[in-house]
Hints:
The protein is an alpha+beta fold. It folds into 3 domains: 17-133, no CATH class; 144-157 and 179-235, no CATH class; 247-398, Ribonuclease H-like superfamily/Ribonuclease H (Nucleotidyltransferase, domain 5, 2-Layer Sandwich).
Amino acid sequence: MADGTLSRYKARLIANGSTQLEGVNVDETFSPVVKPGTIRTVLSLAASRHCPIHQLDVKNAFLHGDLSETVYMHQPLGFQDSVHPDYVCLLQQSLYGLKQAPRAWFQRGTDTAYLLLYVDDIVLTASSKSISVTRDSSRSFLSQKKYAIEILDRAHMDNCNPSRTHIDTESKLGSDNDLVSDSTLYQSLAGSLQYLTFTRPDISYAVQQVCLHMHDPREPHFSALKRILRYIRSTLDFGLQLFSSSTTDLVAYSDTDWAGRLTTRRSTSGYCVFLGNNLLSWSSKRQSTLSRSSAEAEYRGVANVVAETCWLRNLLRKLHTPLSSATLVYCDNISAVYLSCNPVQHQRTKHIEIDIYFVRDLVPAGQVLVLHVPLRYQFADIFIKGLPSALFEEFRSSLSVRCPPAPTAGEC
């Protein structure tokens, strides 16, 4: 609140809130939040199966009024005119049973539907053609162009000079130089850019780097942030493309910049996970502990991506699309590849033996296979360091970050 007090009673989507009892659980709220990886997975399946997609929103106009009565959301949705009545019924039934899960799978007859919730925003896709949506027959395109324009406008950089790349490969961000004059603006812009990475994996590393300095931003950090904005200005139309594909192989790439942080010598790990040709998940993150060798740093990165692929395999199984083949994890460090299948435990690896056993147990089980990949084809490089412009653009295209499809003019 404006006076500094905390407002605890906020309106949220309540699953069958009318069953709550005063004095027991009437103050409980339910804010389902689906993971971005889940959304992209479901959209990838929808694109491959040519299922229609519908975006919905809960009507909450009453939240802007002054009410003294207790309000329950008995009829939470206002989209009956645009969605087939059968799915309105299915969706209502699903919402009322979602006290624990932000996603749902439900079936009526031979039709299957997937429901994703993010507080009061809803994505619904179903095998029935009764739900109408306009999109390309062979692919889907995810874009946040309007949001990117708003960020540029807030930074007063809507007419800035564009940049071909998002980061200066010649410099490393430190903690020297003067503090920025407006730290609040820096923090606001850096936080906003984090949400833009939902459809722009190409800026993940650069955004991660500027976010590391949100507590104490200096002028070089603000210059790096402005470089990202100039790059966004030159690629406003870009987004993430999902293709219709019959391939159901899960493939991951993992890479680590060993001791890349000059001030702390922490390593930065990055990975990307594909289902067929579609990018489902990615990460650019500083490791929480120091690594005493490149093999240790790389293996920690492999363990992180293996954990993510295990989660995705479980998600696909729950979505009734189980994978029959092992997940392929590509790493460019030979030692890390050997550690994933070598049964001998060496003294030098005891300090990371939890990660060692985690991955090694999955290899003989046939769920994961760690393989070597040459640096030339290590797509995860884009998540751990700045790259030369030609290589950056090549890897960006490999991640399916590009202009929206234009049937007459061709793709970017």
